[in-house]
Structure formats: structure tokens, C-alpha cells
Amino acid sequence: MRSESSEQSESSEQVTTSGIPRGGPIYLPNMVGHVSTVDEFQSSFLNLLEDLDAHLSLESPSSSHQYDISIDTLKIYTEEELTDMAMKEAFQEDDFSQNELEKALDASHTEDPLAGNGGTTKRKRAVKKTVKKTVKKTEDAYIAKVEELAKLKQKQDEDKAAVRLHCFSKTCENGEDVSTSPEGLEQMQSLRSIDNYALVKPSEIQGPVDLLFPEVILCVEIYNSRKVKTQEFLVLGRQMLTELRDKIHCLTDHVMEKAGTYDPSGYFLIEDVFHNDLRNSSATDYSKPILEWLWNSNDEALKKWECILTGDSLQKQKAVLGEAKPKDLPRFVSADMHSTRFCDLRFRLGASYLYCHQGACKHMIVIRDMRLTHPEDLQNRAAYPRVVYQSKPRVQKCCVCKIYRATKFALDDKWAKENYSYFCATCFALLHYEGGSLSCDFPVYDYVYE
């Protein structure tokens, strides 16, 4: 059955630190989207792009120049840049004044030389007046530029002091510390996986196949029974569910395979549909007895369904208000996993669904994100489902040498200090083999890394 959204998993080490493009909604705990499909998302997104393109194309190129906005006034200049700007403008005006002075001197020299001494005196006086006016005009220009520079610098300092990047501050507008509040801490933990994102190196794949455009990529998370995230995949919308199942890593599969009791059966329960993996002829339809029980014991199934949804609150409601209106039991159906693509599913982003295999080994799967492909995405279809997160396995060392990894697990071993003892192959052979034969009267198992 469907359960509540998965909790934020504890962080584990990743293999590499190369990033990948991100998109879609920001995943937060207990936030579940509405029921949708890959095709609905793709069509709505492409329609938005077409509307945006049509809106931008309404403005002709000639009219678009009328609305050009300069952002030079928004730039923050340094003191050196402001000084250089003022000096350049001042030197330009100084050159203009120098040209006026040269023109006045040339005009005085081109006067009629027969005018006599009186004319010479008048010319000298005119030149002196011109020089004084030019010098005064230049000094006024310098003073004006210096004052303008000082005002611009003062305004820039005031703007810097007025700006407060409160969105990056730990303190809210009401004065509370975000880091100390549970809501702020929970939100920061949920966003941590988005900022610190690493990509596992893919294995070498032969025969690259280009992606079809537009293609939708889904981000699928896998959780173990303790609600700890163990894997994360990027899956294409046109891929089969069986392709994802073959990539899911679980120790139970290895244990059952070593014991010779491996069961290829399994199913995904996504929005009231059991997707059974029946590719192997020996596989069992896990959903068949469940559907038969739902059909034959409808009343009992309805009571269990109400308890799953409401728990103790329903019993309290019945005690106070009497019998409440029963909730409808979902209409569960079955489908083949090997013939179902992700684009055929109806799901909710952020909701947790069930993956069951090996009889009773259960995992939660969460479709956290959905977006279109990006040029920085790996353009090889054969590389998907792509593992982008893999939890680091916890390995027990030998309890004797404390150096090598354990390969054997023993119970009630008289040679060990503690029960649940772990041994490497060398230490186990030295302690428990006599004359080439194993001599122990307690259970011994092969140790599989957790």
C-alpha cells in the first residue's frame, strides 16, 4: 500500500564530485504533488515554451530598440574606475579649451600688421582675456567633476549601506534565528541534497544511442526498510520499469542467490496498480493472492484500509461521533512490468510507492523530480537508468586481526570474545580447521556487506 512521503535520508559518501544539471520542483519532506503523467508534463511544458516564444515574437526588431534599457547605472564602480572616468572627461574638456586658446592666438597673429602699436596692444589684451577665460573655464570643469565624483561616491556608499541581503542571513525579519527553529533546520536539510550533489561514474557502454528530443528525465530514489536512501537514478520517460528494477541493488538478492533460493519475482505498487515482473517463467504473480483477498473479503479489507489511512484517530472519532462514513477502497489492478513504460504511469511527485521482491523484502521508491533533457545530460540512451547516488556499504572487519574484511559470520563461537563474531578467511581457518576439516558445532554463515 502507499505510505506517507519518505523522510530525508542520512547522508553517505559518493564516488565522484562531478555535477549534473538539475531541474523540476524542489523536493521537501511531506510535500506531495498532484497525480500526473510524463506526457501531461511534457505537453504542458512545451505549450508554455510556445506561448513564451509567441509573446516574444510579437515585438518587431525595429520596435524592440525603443525599449532598450541601459544597466550601466546599476553597476557598482570602484574608486579607481570613478577616478579614471572623471580624469578622462576632464582631459577631453581640457583639450577643447586648449584648442580654443590656440584658435585665439592664431587669430591674433593673422591681424593686419599695418595697424601700428595701438593695434598690437589691443591684440595682447584680447589674448590675455582669452587665456584667463580658458583657464577659469578649465578650473571650473575640474571642480565640477571632482564634486560630481564625490557625490557619486557618497551615493554609492549609501546604497551599499542600505542594501541588506536578508535572504542569506540566518536571522529572519522578526528577529528569530532560522538555524535554531525546527522548520528552518528541516528545510536546510532537505535542500542539502540539492546543493551537495555528486554523480557516480557510469560504466563503459558500447554502442551509443542518441536521445530523442524532447525527452523527459525522472529522478527516482530508492529507500530501504529503515527509510534510508540507498540509491538514486535518472530514468528516461520512454524506458521500461524492468530496466529500473534490474539496476536496483539489494543485499537480499545476493543472500538468496548464494543460498540457492533466488526468486525472480517482484512488483512495483504505483497508484493502485501492481506492476509484476513476470519475465522469468518461474516467476510468481505476487499480486494475485492480494487481489483475490480484496475481492473476497471486501469488508475486512475496507477496515484495514481505514486503519492504514487514519490509525487511532478513527477509533477516537467513532467513540465521540459514532460511526463515520467509510472511505472507499481503491480499485487495485495488475499489469506487466516488462510492457509498461514510465510515460504510461500515473504518479505523484514526492509520493512514496512500494517495491517488493524476494517474497517480503520491501523498499520505498520516490519519484522526486521530472524535467526535460539538458545539453549537459549524457546523450547516450544506453547509459540510462543512470546511477547518480549510491550509499557507501558498511563493512565489518575481522574481530581477531582487526585488519581484513570479514567473510564469515558466526553465532555462539567459543573462540570469540563476543557473540555475533566476524572473521576473515585466514583467521577463521586458523581457529576452526583441524587437519584440513572444519570443526565447529555452531552456525556459521557467509558474511555479506550491509
Automatic annotation (TrEMBL):
InterPro entries named among the record's database cross-references: snRNA-activating_su3
Comp. bias (Low complexity): 1-14
GO molecular function ontology, one term from the record: RNA polymerase II cis-regulatory region sequence-specific DNA binding
A single BP term in Gene Ontology: snRNA transcription by RNA polymerase II
Compartments (UniProt record): Nucleus
Cellular component per GO, a single term: nucleus
UniProtKB keywords: DNA-binding, Nucleus, Transcription, Transcription regulation
Region Disordered, residue ranges: 1-24, 106-127
Transmembrane segments: none
Protein family according to the UniProt entry: Belongs to the SNAPC3/SRD2 family.
Stored PANTHER family: SNRNA-ACTIVATING PROTEIN COMPLEX SUBUNIT 3 (PTHR13421:SF16)
Protein name (Swiss-Prot/TrEMBL): snRNA-activating protein complex subunit
